[in-house]
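Exercise 7b. Backbone tokens:
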């Protein structure tokens, strides 16, 4: 194997989707994955009968093509769920999204949020300088300061005045006046937003999707560490051999990919410093309990909790735990650069986990703790990102390099987006 039309770097969902469409288009390809198993962040881990993902990997569809692909692959293996998720705020469970459930707040808070919203609604600007400016201008100070700003500050661990707004799309639900009026008077879950309905495999966790895709693939190489990519001569070095290509598809995180390139891009170190991201430390719990819990996930905007979100695998599928009296949960703690005092963090998180009222230490016990570290979790849209990505996109295009996926394209995207992008870019190779 010294020559392939298409070489794919990375065996996560984006790389596997690219390989899947190469198979469909009868393209000559080879995929290289450095780990022992394919799947990337879509792998599931099986520990003592429990199934753990890299936090909540749920399938949301707004694209019919992506939905059909996944349903064709998984057939009857998917289950549909209606979101049962809340924000834990001042010891209350407020249905998500916050801005459409103001009826759960105290009278003073409702009035404050409504007045602030009206003030912003009738003076709304079209151009927002940054994330904080957008939240204050669009929702008003009440909603912004109670949820939008503290939650996102906890998630990104980054100055919200330095985050741009060119990535929101469908991910940031925008409120209309009649919706605000409705939210003030109703204490009922308003199922809205892109993730109000989601799908999840009945067995084996999200890895079931990886397994289904891999059955259609023929040229997957694991434990294959790529040491360099020679852009000028169009070959990769892997396992002491050179493999030449016509097109290179990259799905590995952009900062890691840039380090492989020969020759190096000018001012590479400066560019890498400006490609900022937030990491997530994911603590998974196996729980023995007699408590009823039908929640899918919870958001935590208050600083007294170190985690920003907590979810419950056993409510995605009953097959995620070995026994009926056992539950499973994931905790998400974000950090930048280095996570210190890991042992102290685990003790603190375990105590906080029993503080929000779903479980208590009298009737529930954590019997398994399984941490997973996600280095590249959230891309930060700082002021440098757009210019760097535009430059790299042009450079890659001229050198027959194609980027697919959240971390290769350095954007905010979903599993659905990975599938659609892979299809569009493979199809374009035939044109």
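Sequence design result:
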């Amino acid at each position: 194997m010294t020559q392939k039309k298409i070489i794919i770097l990375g065996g996560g969902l984006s790389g596997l989707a690219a390989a899947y469409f190469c198979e469909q288009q009868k393209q000559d390809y080879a995929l290289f994955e450095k780990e022992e198993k394919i799947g990337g962040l879509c792998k599931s881990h099986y520990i003592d009968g429990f199934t753990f993902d890299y936090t909540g990997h749920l399938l949301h569809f707004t694209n019919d093509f992506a939905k059909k692909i996944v349903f064709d692959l998984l057939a009857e293996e998917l289950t549909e769920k209606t979101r049962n998720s809340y924000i834990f705020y001042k010891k209350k469970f407020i249905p998500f999204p916050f801005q459409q459930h103001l009826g759960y707040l105290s009278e003073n808070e409702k009035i404050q949020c409504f007045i602030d919203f009206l003030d912003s609604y009738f003076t709304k600007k079209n151009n927002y300088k940054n994330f904080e400016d957008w939240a204050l201008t669009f929702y008003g100070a009440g909603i912004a300061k109670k949820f939008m700003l503290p939650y996102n500050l906890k998630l990104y661990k980054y100055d919200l005045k330095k985050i741009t707004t060119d990535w929101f799309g469908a991910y940031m639900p925008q409120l209309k006046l009649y919706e605000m009026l409705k939210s003030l008077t109703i204490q009922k879950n308003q199922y809205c937003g892109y993730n109000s309905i989601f799908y999840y495999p009945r067995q084996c966790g999200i890895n079931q999707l990886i397994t289904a895709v891999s059955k259609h693939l023929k040229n997957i190489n694991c434990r294959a560490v790529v040491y360099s990519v020679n852009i000028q001569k169009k070959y990769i070095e892997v396992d002491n051999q050179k493999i030449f290509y016509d097109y290179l598809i990259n799905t590995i995180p952009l900062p890691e990919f840039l380090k492989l390139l020969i020759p190096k891009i000018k001012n590479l170190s400066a560019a890498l410093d400006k490609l900022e991201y937030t990491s997530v430390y994911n603590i998974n719990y196996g729980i023995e309990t007699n408590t009823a819990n039908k929640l899918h996930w919870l958001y935590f905007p208050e600083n007294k909790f170190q985690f920003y979100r907590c979810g419950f695998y056993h409510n995605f599928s009953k097959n995620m735990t070995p026994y009926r009296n056992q539950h499973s949960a994931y905790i998400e703690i974000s950090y930048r650069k280095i996570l210190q005092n890991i042992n102290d963090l685990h003790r603190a998180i375990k105590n906080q986990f029993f503080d929000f009222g779903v479980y208590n230490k009298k009737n529930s016990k954590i019997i398994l703790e399984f941490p997973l570290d996600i280095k590249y979790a959230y891309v930060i849209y700082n002021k440098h990102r757009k210019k760097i990505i535009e430059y790299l996109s042009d450079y890659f295009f001229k050198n027959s390099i194609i980027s697919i996926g959240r971390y290769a394209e350095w954007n905010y995207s979903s599993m659905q987006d990975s599938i659609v992008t892979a299809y569009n870019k493979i199809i374009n190779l035939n044109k």
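Instructor comment: Residues 98-149+158-185 form one domain. The CA atoms of residues 23 and 218 lie 8 Å apart.
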